Amino acid sequence: MFQGNFSKPLSTKYGWRKTKYKFFGGKKHLQWKKLKLLEFLHMVPKHVIWKDPFCTFMVDYLSRIYNMKIVCMIRHPCAHYYSVSKQNWFFDIRNLTRQKKLLTDYGTGNPEYLWEKAKSDNLTSIALLWKIMIRMMTSLNKQNNNLMIVRHEDLCIQPEVEVERICKFLGVGFTPRMRKYIHITSHGLYAEALNGNEHDYVRNSKALVDIWKSKLPEREQEMVLQIIGEDIKNFYGTK
């Protein structure tokens, strides 16, 4: 089981969100409550698609215990760090360092000073997190038929092709309505969300792929790649 925490400080003007979450929970919580209600009424759907970016470290467990089919999307580490830092999110690396088996299996070979530096340096923390996740995905990808790995870049460049491939893997029909929605949402005017909106789903997906190369300082790109080292070759060659 993975315990992690991405945090983003809320300003006082968003204090009402805390109140709302306290009483109603977030979107995922409400969806879960709906499923529990349907279970009580004996109306649970035969298939449920569960999207949760914080369950990466549960892939093996969910696959073995519940025989779930899992689609895991990965993204270039520099693009991932740029996206996280742009939203002013930080990752507390101490949640990983407390899990000794996780580090034994996937965290070896990293100098001790990096773990210490990561406690206060978000770039180091995110890079180490990405490195551990990609090692785990590489291992599971060789032995788990219930796992499908999709690169974010491939999805952005040919969204309809990739979504159709995902649907086939999950046994879900790829309908004309879905194709139309994907076309609309991936052919927006802008690559990045406007005004810091976290949930802007209409983007220019092809332009989004390499935007980090011009926005993220070269020094930070070099630092991320230096920490990742050879592990990036598993899915990105020598990029």
Q: Quick one: overall form?
A: globular
**CATH fold description:** Rossmann fold
Tally of contiguous helical segments: 15
| Percent range of helical residues | 55-70%
Question: Describe it for me?
Answer:
This protein has one domain (15-236): Rossmann fold, CATH 3.40.50. It contains 15 helices and four strands. The chain has helices spanning 15-24, 27-40, 59-66, 77-86, 94-97, 100-106, 112-118, 122-141, 152-157, 159-170, 176-185, 205-208, 211-215, 218-228, 233-236, and strands at residues 6-7, 70-74, 90-91, 147-151. The model is unreliable at 1-13 (pLDDT under 50).
Quick description:
This protein is mainly alpha-helical and 239 residues long. 55% of the residues lie in helices and 6% in strands.
Give the key terms.
single chain; 239 residues; mainly alpha; Rossmann fold; two-stranded parallel sheet; 6% strand; disordered N terminus
Topology:
Blueprint lengths: L5 E2 L7 H10 L2 H14 L18 H8 L3 E5 L2 H10 L3 E2 L2 H4 L2 H7 L5 H7 L3 H20 L5 E5 H6 L1 H12 L5 H10 L19 H4 L2 H5 L2 H11 L4 H4 L3
Parallel strand pairs: 2-4
Antiparallel strand pairs: 1-3
